[in-house]
């Protein structure tokens, strides 16, 4: 626990204070000195947390001792002892920011009260120091992980500043990925409480908020698995690297642990995955590009079952499980590039709103496991398949509508009706009527009127034909009907329109 030095040239006083402290704080380590010089030597040797010193002592008095202590880097709490006659010395000591002073003879309750206040301050200061060091280590370790080209001398300097010593017996890196709503800081705090106290074990959060642990003792991970596993609401996986001797190879071991962690995607029930067990997996056979192209070409056709069969062949779990995880990553990229991105590129950005799942399926690790990913992949393919079928139907309808509109605009001056146009483009009368209104946004009669009025306005403005002649030229044999239709559309008569337009 804490170390306390008692310095006083009166034997009974220093032994008495030592005895009181031992009875009240048996966990404290105490030292005694008979003068200031002896006290200074003991301080050099033992680095006490608290020094209780008399003011008047031979060889080196209390004031000089305090000055010597405060020149050292280590912060030591100082309490002075003084009699009533030593008040001028006490005032001088107070200038040097001593924590407290006690009058002789020392009162037991006053001594314990002072020690209690000091130990509380030391605990708080120590906690803040540890917290600051933890935050500093986390930032510097992430800096190392994010910068692969750091020179060895730079790395050695960084580790020295972080107070991370070499690992002569080797070390491991473990990365913990937890599912659910647990906050990353809360998980780090929980893991800190579960880890066995050791200078060789350093937990921190990586850039993605995963708890990462450097440990010389691989048993720490077994302990964590057992302790975390007791929380039934916590779903987690630990990826563990191979053993490494050189701390400068931290980035390599981190990548190993990260690779091991990825295999949770294929084996979601495994809580611990060792890099050593997956590193020998082959890259797998070549990506079935032709089969993926085949699926892409069949989308929108009547071959839905064949699409699903081919997809299952592409995503054969046995082949994927026997291969490196890189094979599945490459497979996913090939599907995205060949099927999804090409599809959306053809249809335009507005289709992204319809298929928001594409943003998620772009990365397999957006899903908890392979089976969840496969079902999402198959679901998205089927949605695109149906969408393609609809779009093909729409394109077919557009072809019919383009022919119908072109015919109307070329023949508006004739005795034209819906049946004539439907017969021209070879569509059922009722189906054409419904499709025309859906496509154009107005019925056939109103559209024909609009086309005739547009052409009448042009003739009224640009020619000298009589209104009666123009009426016949745009398809109205009855000039009164023409005038009525024109007024309904423009709000004025054909004559007024011509006069207004000069």
Provide the descriptors you would attach to this structure in a database record.
five-stranded parallel β-sheet; about 10% strand; alpha/beta; five-stranded mixed β-sheet; single chain; about 500 residues; 23 helices; Rossmann fold; 4 domains; Alpha-Beta Plaits
Q: What topology, given as strand order, has the largest sheet?
A: 2-1-3-4-5
CATH superfamily assignment of the largest domain? Reverse transcriptase/Diguanylate cyclase domain
Gyration radius, rounded = 43 Å
Compute the number of strand runs: 10
CATH topology category name of the largest domain: Alpha-Beta Plaits
- Structural domains: how many: 4
So what's the CATH class of the largest domain? Alpha Beta
Tally of helical runs: 23
Major sheet attributes: 5 strands, parallel
What is the average of the pLDDT values? 85
- Describe the global form: elongated
Helix fraction bin: 55-70%
Second rung of CATH, namely the architecture of the largest domain: 2-Layer Sandwich
* Separation of the first and last Cα atoms: 106 Å
Strand content: 5-15%
Poorly predicted regions: none
Quickly give the structural class.
alpha/beta
Report on the architecture of this protein.
This protein is α/β, with parallel strands linked by helices and 502 residues long. The chain has 4 domains: 3-106, Rossmann fold (3-Layer(aba) Sandwich); 137-267, Alpha-Beta Plaits (2-Layer Sandwich); 289-390; 398-500, Homeodomain-like (Arc Repressor Mutant, subunit A, Orthogonal Bundle). It has helices at 11-24, 36-46, 62-70, 87-95, 108-146, 152-161, 184-194, 219-228, 250-262, 275-278, 289-298, 304-314, 317-321, 325-347, 351-354, 357-361, 370-411, 418-424, 429-440, 444-462, 467-473, 479-490, 494-500, and strands at residues 3-7, 29-33, 50-54, 77-82, 100-103, 172-179, 201-205, 211-215, 235-240, 272-274. Helix 2 runs parallel beside helix 3 (62-70) and helix 20 (444-462) crosses helix 23 (494-500). It is elongated. The relative contact order is 0.04. The mean pLDDT is 85.
């Amino acid at each position: 626990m804490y170390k306390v030095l008692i310095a006083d040239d009166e034997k009974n006083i220093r032994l008495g204070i030592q005895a009181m402290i031992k009875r009240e704080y048996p966990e404290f380590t105490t030292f005694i000195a008979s003068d200031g010089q002896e006290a200074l030597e003991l301080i050099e040797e033992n680095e006490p947390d608290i020094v209780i010193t008399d003011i008047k002592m031979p060889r080196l008095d209390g004031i000089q001792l305090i000055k010597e202590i405060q020149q050292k880097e280590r912060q030591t709490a100082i309490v002075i002892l003084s009699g009533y006659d030593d008040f001028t010395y006490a005032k001088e000591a107070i200038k040097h920011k001593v924590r407290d002073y006690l009058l002789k003879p020392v009162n037991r309750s006053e001594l314990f009260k002072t020690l209690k206040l000091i130990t509380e301050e030391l605990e708080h200061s120590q906690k803040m120091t540890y917290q600051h060091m933890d935050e500093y280590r986390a930032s510097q370790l992430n800096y190392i992980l994010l910068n692969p080209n750091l020179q060895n001398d730079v790395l050695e300097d960084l580790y020295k500043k972080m107070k991370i010593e070499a690992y002569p017996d080797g070390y491991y890196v473990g990365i913990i990925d937890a599912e659910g709503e647990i906050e990353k800081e809360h998980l780090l705090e929980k893991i800190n409480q579960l880890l066995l106290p050791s200078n060789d074990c350093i937990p921190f959060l990586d850039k993605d908020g995963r708890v990462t642990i450097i440990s010389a003792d691989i048993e720490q991970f077994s302990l964590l698995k057992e302790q975390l596993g007791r929380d039934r609401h916590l779903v987690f996986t630990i990826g563990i690297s191979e053993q490494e001797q050189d701390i400068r190879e931290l980035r390599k071991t981190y990548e190993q642990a990260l690779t091991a962690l990825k295999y949770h995607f294929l084996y979601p029930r495994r809580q611990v995955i060792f890099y050593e067990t997956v590193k020998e997996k082959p890259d797998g056979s070549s990506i079935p590009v032709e089969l993926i192209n085949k699926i892409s070409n069949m989308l929108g056709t009547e071959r839905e079952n064949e699409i699903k069969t081919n997809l299952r062949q592409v995503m054969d779990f046995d082949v994927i499980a026997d291969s490196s995880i890189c094979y599945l990553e490459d497979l996913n990229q090939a599907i995205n590039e060949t099927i999804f991105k090409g599809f959306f590129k053809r249809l335009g950005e507005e289709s992204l709103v319809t298929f928001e799942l594409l943003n998620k399926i772009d990365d397999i690790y957006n899903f908890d496991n392979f089976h969840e990913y496969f079902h999402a992949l198959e679901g998205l393919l089927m949605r695109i398949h149906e969408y393609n079928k609809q779009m093909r139907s729409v394109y077919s309808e557009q072809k019919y509508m383009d022919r119908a509109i072109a015919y109307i605009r070329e023949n508006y001056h004739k005795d034209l009706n819906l049946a004539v146009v439907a017969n021209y483009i070879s569509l059922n009368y009722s189906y054409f009527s419904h499709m025309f209104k859906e496509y154009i946004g107005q019925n056939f009669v109103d559209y024909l009127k609009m086309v005739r009025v547009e052409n009448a306005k042009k003739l009224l403005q640009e020619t000298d034909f009589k209104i009666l002649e123009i009426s016949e030229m745009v398809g109205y044999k009855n000039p009164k009907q023409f005038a009525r239709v024109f007024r309904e559309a423009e709000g004025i008569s054909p004559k007024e329109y011509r006069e207004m337009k000069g």
